[in-house]
Amino acid sequence: MTYSFGHNSFGKYDIVRPWLVSGKNDVPAYIPQPSYSQTSIPDNGPEISEIKDMYQIECMRNSCKLASYILRQVNTLIKPGITTDALDKQVHDMIIGNGAYPSPLNYRGFPKSICTSVNNVACHGIPDNRPLQDGDILNVDITVYLNGYHGDCSNMFQIGEVDSEGKRLITITELCLKEAIQICKPNERFCNIGNVIEEIANKHNLSVIPACLGHGIGTYFHGAPDIYHFANDYSERMQSGMTFTIEPILSQGTTQLEILEDGWTACTIDNSRTAQIEHTILITDDGCEVLTF
Ligand code: MF3
Ligand code: CO
Ligand code: CO
């Protein structure tokens, strides 16, 4: 197998295109499934932000705890030479083994159980038979549906020796998410999430991809509120009992994405690398709780 390394002003890394995607993973009938697992069409999420009661919050805690546990296990599976398809299969089995459904599977027709976005793929990468190689950075996004509630998180992983620009991109993305979480509390405006993220990104000469939003989450995968990660003046305020994700994508170069023919894979049009990290947050009476820690 031959690998080509790109060498451009964004650093030293492989420019990735989709490889072969294998057949559908099975889900045993005893696993409770969201309705789109059959139809591919999700029920509409709420149009106004839902305030969850104690029972709903407990359900969110459980699904989020499982999602973050599975995401941590990815550390032990990921290594040079493993394909994202093999990673998808192992994670799929682990999710099923814990009595949950892998939320991406057949969501609007998505063909796999996790999203794996490598180097210049910004988000919604489909696991395929490309072996991970030295120098790759990738986002693995895990969402599980447990007891009727979704929990959603993602993190960046590094394969072997990553160049300094790749490492810096990841570090600043971590900082953006951390600082955004720190302002979350009742009565805070949602727009300040984007205002904080954009300021930090720009200060470090990185840009925020505007097309990708955080979202409310619950019995639905995506619903109100929309969370913008760029500077904005959206007027809605956070309230205790709301659950939503924050999932900024930072780019080394352009903010423009191209969706490939598979209908999912979103690449930067200048092949620059991106990094994304995601947590699901609960607003509490005196601040917030990161449900996917
Ligand atoms: N987990 C992604 C998010 O953070 C959504 C993936 S949609 C899928 O919102 F269909 F690609 F799975
Ligand atoms: Co999400
Ligand atoms: Co996600």
From TrEMBL:
<feature type="binding site">
    <location>
        <position position="247"/>
    </location>
    <ligand>
        <name>a divalent metal cation 2</name>
    </ligand>
</feature>
<comment type="function">
    <text>Cotranslationally removes the N-terminal methionine from nascent proteins. The N-terminal methionine is often cleaved when the second residue in the primary sequence is small and uncharged (Met-Ala-, Cys, Gly, Pro, Ser, Thr, or Val).</text>
</comment>
<keyword id="KW-0031">Aminopeptidase</keyword>
<keyword id="KW-0645">Protease</keyword>
<keyword id="KW-0479">Metal-binding</keyword>
<dbReference type="InterPro" id="IPR036005">
    <property type="entry name" value="Creatinase/aminopeptidase-like"/>
</dbReference>
<feature type="binding site">
    <location>
        <position position="124"/>
    </location>
    <ligand>
        <name>substrate</name>
    </ligand>
</feature>
<feature type="binding site">
    <location>
        <position position="278"/>
    </location>
    <ligand>
        <name>a divalent metal cation 1</name>
    </ligand>
</feature>
<keyword id="KW-0378">Hydrolase</keyword>
<dbReference type="Pfam" id="PF00557">
    <property type="entry name" value="Peptidase_M24"/>
</dbReference>
<protein>
    <recommendedName>
        <fullName>Methionine aminopeptidase</fullName>
        <ecNumber>3.4.11.18</ecNumber>
    </recommendedName>
</protein>
<feature type="binding site">
    <location>
        <position position="222"/>
    </location>
    <ligand>
        <name>substrate</name>
    </ligand>
</feature>
<dbReference type="GO" id="GO:0004239">
    <property type="term" value="F:initiator methionyl aminopeptidase activity"/>
</dbReference>
<feature type="binding site">
    <location>
        <position position="278"/>
    </location>
    <ligand>
        <name>a divalent metal cation 2</name>
    </ligand>
</feature>
<feature type="binding site">
    <location>
        <position position="215"/>
    </location>
    <ligand>
        <name>a divalent metal cation 2</name>
    </ligand>
</feature>
<dbReference type="InterPro" id="IPR001714">
    <property type="entry name" value="Pept_M24_MAP"/>
</dbReference>
<feature type="binding site">
    <location>
        <position position="152"/>
    </location>
    <ligand>
        <name>a divalent metal cation 2</name>
    </ligand>
</feature>
<dbReference type="GO" id="GO:0006508">
    <property type="term" value="P:proteolysis"/>
</dbReference>
<feature type="domain" description="Peptidase M24">
    <location>
        <begin position="58"/>
        <end position="285"/>
    </location>
</feature>
<dbReference type="GO" id="GO:0070006">
    <property type="term" value="F:metalloaminopeptidase activity"/>
</dbReference>
<dbReference type="GO" id="GO:0046872">
    <property type="term" value="F:metal ion binding"/>
</dbReference>
<feature type="binding site">
    <location>
        <position position="141"/>
    </location>
    <ligand>
        <name>a divalent metal cation 1</name>
    </ligand>
</feature>
<dbReference type="InterPro" id="IPR002467">
    <property type="entry name" value="Pept_M24A_MAP1"/>
</dbReference>
<feature type="binding site">
    <location>
        <position position="152"/>
    </location>
    <ligand>
        <name>a divalent metal cation 1</name>
    </ligand>
</feature>
<comment type="similarity">
    <text>Belongs to the peptidase M24A family. Methionine aminopeptidase type 1 subfamily.</text>
</comment>
<dbReference type="InterPro" id="IPR000994">
    <property type="entry name" value="Pept_M24"/>
</dbReference>
